[in-house]
């Protein structure tokens, strides 16, 4: 193995460890969120965990919020709970990211109600789902839910986002996508994105999760490259190793270990995406990089990446490869193409 590859592997391992266990305390708080009156936001998976905390703070700061979730029952329960806390009411949109027809229907339902969208937070995701679980359309459940579904959701909302950017005073709108420190480790194999021999014979749920979160970073970076000059601020955010229900698919023993190691409260996990989605500093995140960070990247391209807690960090170097970004984008476009003209 070449020295450069060894150093890259060591850097990835350190980044994974540091962003999982050595995050310290936040230096930014939700009290610094500005007034969001007149802004409209969508939060996927907003009925629980980090998503629910995110919806809460957006409501508290006067945004109009749509909670896009699979379970209407869970969403309505969360909406009522947040109404008591904030005095504001979020709205529900039915969305199953593991079903591309559902994604298309969700966007149709939204655009009937609204002509603008200032903030899109792709928060929803799954972790360590069993290998036998695949999406409605035959994709690996983790890649389909964490990457392909959010890509299609964002793609269909792009006309609304771009129109909003052209009309709002700042000339910019935000798309925030949730990744993980797991993106630093494991493979990235196109052949495993759909169900098949490569996925079933060579990869574990943990590996598939890591590559799905790598896909999130690549997608968010490519979105910034393609649409940054037209007012799309696209940021990927590692929310941190917080207490959440993402361990539900793990074995009892593994789940207990992971929960024991989840040191941080769920409210910390919402900080990064709230910072990216609401602050003036967040408007500059396309092209933002902390001093000295470019040395860790394989290309002179800024990462558009936040690590815990709401601080600019450096993602896995290979995620910044423009060629990989173009290849993944084209692959994603090819997968959703059959749904473009299909009726809902």
SSE order and pairing:
Elements: H1 3-21, E1 40-44, H2 49-60, E2 64-69, H3 72-86, E3 91-94, H4 100-113, E4 119-122, H5 141-167, E5 173-178, H6 197-202, H7 205-227, E6 232-237, H8 252-260, H9 266-269, H10 271-278, E7 305-307, E8 311-312, H11 322-340
Parallel strand pairs: 1-2, 1-4, 2-3, 4-5, 5-6, 6-7
Antiparallel strand pairs: 7-8
Helix pairs in contact: 2-3, 4-5, 5-7, 7-11
| Total number of beta strands | 8
The proportion of strand residues reads 5-15%
Please, what is the average pLDDT?
A: 89
CATH class descriptor? Alpha Beta
Report the sheet with the most strands, covering strand number, pairing sense and barrel closure: 8 strands, mixed
**Count, helices:** 11
- What ranges have pLDDT less than 50 throughout 5 or more consecutive residues? 289-301
Portion in helices: 40-55%
Q: What is the total domain count?
A: 1
Tell me the strand order in the biggest sheet.
Answer: 3-2-1-4-5-6-7-8
The SSE order reads: HEHEHEHEHEHHEHHHEEH
CATH architecture: 3-Layer(aba) Sandwich
Calculate Rg over CA atoms. Answer: 19 Å
CATH topology type: Rossmann fold
What's the end-to-end separation, in Å? 50 Å
Name the CATH superfamily assignment: NAD(P)-binding Rossmann-like Domain
User: What structural class do the secondary elements suggest?
Assistant: alpha/beta
Shape: globular
Short description:
The protein contains eleven helices and eight strands. The chain has 344 residues and is of the alpha/beta class. It has one domain: NAD(P)-binding Rossmann-like Domain (Rossmann fold).
């Amino acid at each position: 193995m070449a020295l450069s590859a060894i150093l890259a592997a060591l850097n990835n391992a350190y980044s994974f460890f540091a962003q999982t266990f050595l995050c310290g305390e936040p230096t930014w708080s939700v009290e610094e969120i500005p007034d969001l009156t007149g802004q409209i936001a969508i939060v996927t998976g907003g009925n629980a965990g980090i998503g629910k905390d995110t919806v809460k703070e957006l409501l508290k700061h006067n945004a109009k919020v749509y909670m896009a979730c699979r379970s209407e029952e869970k969403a309505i329960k969360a909406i009522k709970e947040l109404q008591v806390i904030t005095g504001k009411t979020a709205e529900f949109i039915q969305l199953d990211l593991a079903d591309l027809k559902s994604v298309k229907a969700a966007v149709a339902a939204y655009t009937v109600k609204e002509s603008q969208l200032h903030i899109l937070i792709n928060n929803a995701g799954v972790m360590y789902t069993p290998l036998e679980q695949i999406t409605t359309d035959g994709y690996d459940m983790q890649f389909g839910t964490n990457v392909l579904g959010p890509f299609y959701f964002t793609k269909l909302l792009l006309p609304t986002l771009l129109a909003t950017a052209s009309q709002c005073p700042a000339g910019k709108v935000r798309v925030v996508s949730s990744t993980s420190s797991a993106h630093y480790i494991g493979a990235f194999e196109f052949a495993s994105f759909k169900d098949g021999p490569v996925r079933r014979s060579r990869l574990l749920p943990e590996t598939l999760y890591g590559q799905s979160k790598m896909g999130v970073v690549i997608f968010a970076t490519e979105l910034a490259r393609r649409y940054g000059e037209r007012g799309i601020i696209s940021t990927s955010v590692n929310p941190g190793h917080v207490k959440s229900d993402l361990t539900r698919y793990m074995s009892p023993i593994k789940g207990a270990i992971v929960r024991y190691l989840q040191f941080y409260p769920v409210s910390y996990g919402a900080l990064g995406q709230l910072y990216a989605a609401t602050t003036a500093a967040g408007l500059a995140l396309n092209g933002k990089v902390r001093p000295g960070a470019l040395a860790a990247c394989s290309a002179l391209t800024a990462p558009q990446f936040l690590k815990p807690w709401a601080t600019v960090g450096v993602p896995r170097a290979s995620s910044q490869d423009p060629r990989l970004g173009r290849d993944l984008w084209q692959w994603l476009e090819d997968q959703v193409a059959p749904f473009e003209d299909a009726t809902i």
